[in-house]
Known about the structure:
mainly alpha
Amino acid sequence: MTMIEREVAAWLLNVFPSHQTHVGLAQRSTLDPPMTPLTIISDWFEEQDTEVQVEIAGMAALLMFDGAALLDLGSQEQVEFFRHWLSEAGLQTHMVVGRVLTFRACFEYFAENKFTDFGWRLSEKALRKAIEESERAANFSDSMRLASNARRVLDVLPARKSKWIEVGKSWRELADACLTSSALRNWASSQTEQSPDGGRAG
């Protein structure tokens, strides 16, 4: 377990109120023993389209994983690395919880503004401002290239907005049902009870 995983796990387990009661992972584990909070996230990740997977894996490379070398990988290699991180076998229970909390904190930090209409209005405003400023800039060649890039992003913004708002809804449903501190504590307790060695997940 890395230092950031320990720190995020400790901080979030204190911040999230313990009285939250949604569908417990302990119940899911009883019905399907191999299921862990990480495999739940992995299943959700696989339901997303390629573009969203690439963005999520790129976020993970930037915010979660030590070593700049990962940022030099291609987008598909980053996706595969993230898949392995979610599905690695034999992790101890506390490592699973640490990874879940690390991903949840980093993903919501990265993507929360993509989940709301307000966030996309801010993005649209920033793009339009960039276009206006580029058109007034003295360096014609560079400014026109910047304006052209901004227009291309602006053209696909409605489709991206619709897609990411749906991603946000599905993530919030998953997180509120299965990834609260209460659900994670219940799951961790169930693993300790089932495993004489203190609990290895899956």
